[in-house]
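Render this sequence as a predicted structure.
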Amino acid sequence: MNTCLAIDIGGTKIAVALIESGQILKLDQRETPSSNYSEDMTLALKELLAPFKEQADFIAVASTGIINQGVLTALNPDNLGGLNQYRLADTLEQICQKPVMVINDAQAAAWAEYKTLESTFNAMGFITVSTGVGAGFVINDSLLIGQYGIAGHAGHILADPNGPTCGCGRKGCVESIASGTAIGKAGQAFFGSDCTGKIVFDQYQKGHPEAIAIVENAAKTIANLIADLKITLDLQVVCLGGSIGLAPGFLPRVHHHLSLLPSAHQVKVMHAHSGANAGLLGVASWAQNIYNNKALPR
């Protein structure tokens, strides 16, 4: 049985794990370097992977951002800093001297979630609402990646043409309204300049009217995003994850706003179940299939 060294690169942490047959054998993580210098990321990866790389047959990476031909780019540069235009696959091949496969982290989590579903679905969507808003889709048992790796960046679908300017440069993206970052920014006028999404949700649970309005707007935005994706891809089920997506009370509000839309736009929505290691497990499973066929795309 092959051993996969799975890596999950997020905006706040990098996690690595040795995985065999869907089981995590060894796990470690560290904070993602906040420096604007890509060399700091390379050094962090070298240090983190050193105890793992000799035990692996291949490397599978789930990373924030757009992965195109092994290069990590940013639709929203604010989320990546010095990692923009970072040659991730080449760097890891040099470090580990093993085959490397890289996809977006939401795509990886979507594959993990798809594998946990008890029923068979021909069209499944996964949406993560956390620091940003991302998505992944499995259609006819295939993970949708896209020619340039951009498939699933649903957080940058238009939600409100008069809304806040998103980090990607477009005005009114879903991410600029419904992400944890956006929720925190919306709360600054009421709860101080250090307001975060968590603070807004704490106030929401206490019945604060401004917090309720902010959370309701975010839930309605996600409901409309789900409706748009359903009517576009004919999804049969959507799994909602991320710190905001899994926050107490959020999914029922999404259900409420979705229920107000025409039936053709409605779809089954439920909580994601794969947990914090979804990216690691998903990318390992996806990459194992590719490795077995010996066709190793970036």
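Summary. The radius of gyration is 19 Å. The CA atoms of residues 143 and 259 lie 28 Å apart.
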